[in-house]
């Protein structure tokens, strides 16, 4: 398959692995920011192959994993109303809030529809004028433009039965929050290629300058990841600190301007609670005042439910590289995909699910 | 004196009266169902089908079909019901003989839809040489079913040599898939979720009788076990076989036949074709050294032209089922948990 098979070539992958081992004089600690990268690293056996040469920390880059419990509880609460259809991406359905998951709510009678794009949710609102359609808008900068487009479409169609639970999050503030922590272990970043496709990578210049850490924009296929890792290792070995783009077939320095314009038109930056991290300053996007009528929190005056219980999931330790999923006391015991303690075990992008799925042991 | 209550005689839709055992029920059964599936046993309209003696032992299976939508590229609920049931018999080593057919219809089901499904059932039964010998109809109120549900039972005669079964798998046995995987699940997903694909991917819904027959004739006792890889896909079959045998089943990703459209959609949505349903593709285990011959025989038939040896059976290792991907390292392949959900990014 074009643009896929050539980036999965086993021979080329072996050569890159050998090169990484050859240039490494010590074990470097890198963080891949994106959950998609985590899965690819484990699925293709790269993390295991590089054991002892490069330690990979699986960063906070799964929007499903970092969606705050309160937002999930609110989505479940709205879904249970007779007049509401809740539309969501599929992998959000199994993630537990403090009062159960959306799947639990659906079992209890809530009307929840899986959609494949935010525009599908607008279509749903058109089809069901008698219902309020609420789209659970999660995702990084990659999905925010599509949600923005959905809001504009709903406005153009004068749909007064469409709204959003906006839980969009921004990657770079999370990276800043990680490196500012006193016990930060990350020595270089593999930046998420798809986020950079939208946002470009120019904004990382100041990040690299300020924190003196290499950042390499990296794709998702085995060869993309190996090239990204090699570029990081070469910089670290040469004691250099640069921003590099190793995903040039997709990513341009300035990113996708029209997508960025759309995001700027519809959203404003806000502080956002990340599950496991707490509130990250400027870590999220919310609707601008002039689009606020599409905010489900404005439209439905539901009382905010308190989040129940204590989150036993140690996702923060996992996502900051202080705990490998198999070393977590709950891993494969009280926490597994059938009964997850937290989102990293249930989301298809989550680090714990990746370790579980690909059978990685503590030694990895 | 005429009855003061008018009996609905709407000819276009199934009504609750069609299920109440009266004149409309008889009319529906005789004029549509028996007429479409016509055979002597059914025409006798006995409470139970009276069947001739057979020489061999019998195999019995049952299945229910609740697919939505009822029609999809490559098939419909009718063909699915017939092929699904006879495939279960075929892979068990039986020659399918008789089927029962229960139709649970939702009030409001257009009769033209029912007729089309019955026609599909009749054609699939004729093509595979099975007779539908007994049945039942029920009508449920609007909203209580998704148009039409079908339940079948199938009876077949076991024919030697019967595959020895997954419990007899041994080290070195070879694993084969009979065609490209994941087609049915992707076809249904594309239609149901209106993914806007052009052309629409097509289901592999079909009969496995001929491929099983050719394996039986040419490979005999060298075939250990067969299984149509329906819900849960190839991965689910491997998990079951690994559990039954206590061995490790190991496959190589690069050997798996996957059509470009299934692969593309799976990549896009974060689904694994190994976990996606098939309806005319089976997994086969043969004795060590017999894989190439089995594949060669299968490739002579159009329905299994894409058959491939995809892996081997080993002593239990790091996991019950393993897969080798890009770098060649053996990794566990997990059991699907419920239906796979498409991912966000």
Write the layout of secondary structure elements.
The complex is a heterodimer of chains A (364) and B (345).
Chain A: H1 10-23, E1 28-34, H2 35-43, H3 46-49, E2 54-61, H4 63-66, H5 69-79, E3 84-88, H6 102-107, E4 112-114, H7 118-127, E5 132-139, H8 144-156, E6 162-168, H9 171-180, E7 188-192, H10 193-199, H11 204-211, E8 215-218, H12 222-237, E9 243-245, H13 257-266, E10 267-274, E11 278-287, H14 296-299, H15 315-319, H16 343-346, H17 351-357
Parallel strand pairs in A: 1-2, 1-7, 3-4, 3-5, 5-6, 7-8, 8-9
Antiparallel strand pairs in A: 10-11
Helix pairs in contact in A: 1-12, 2-17, 7-8, 8-13
Chain B: H1 23-36, H2 40-43, E1 58-65, E2 71-72, E3 75-76, H3 77-91, E4 94-106, H4 111-128, E5 131-140, E6 148-158, E7 174-177, H5 183-192, H6 209-219, E8 223-228, H7 233-245, E9 248-252, H8 260-269, E10 282-286, H9 291-299, E11 308-314, E12 321-324, E13 330-332
Parallel strand pairs in B: 4-5, 9-12
Antiparallel strand pairs in B: 1-6, 2-3, 4-6, 7-10, 7-11, 8-10, 9-11, 12-13
Query: Tell me, what is the CATH class of the domain at 6-62 and 173-245 in chain A?
Result: Alpha Beta
- Amino- and carboxy-terminal Cα gap of chain B: 70 Å
Strand order of the largest sheet of chain A: 2-1-7-8-9
Overall mean pLDDT score of chain A?
92
- Helical element count of chain A? 17
Residue windows where pLDDT falls under 50 for at least 5 positions of chain A: none
- In which range does the helix fraction of chain B lie? 25-40%
Run of helices and strands of chain B: HHEEEHEHEEEHHEHEHEHEEE
* Largest sheet descriptor of chain B: 7 strands, mixed
Order of helices and strands of chain A: HEHHEHHEHEHEHEHEHHEHEHEEHHHH
Helix/strand class of chain A: alpha/beta
- Helix percentage of chain A: 25-40%
In CATH, the homologous superfamily of the domain at 6-62 and 173-245 in chain A goes by the name HypD, alpha/beta domain 1
- What's the total number of strands of chain A? 11
Structural class of chain B: alpha+beta
Specify the overall morphology of chain B.
globular
How far apart the termini of chain A lie comes to 31 Å
Largest interface: A-B, 41 and 25 residues
Pfam families (chain A): HypD
Family (chain A): Belongs to the HypD family.
InterPro entries (chain A): Hyd_form_HypD, HypD_1, HypD_2_sf
Protein name (chain A): Hydrogenase isoenzymes formation protein HypD
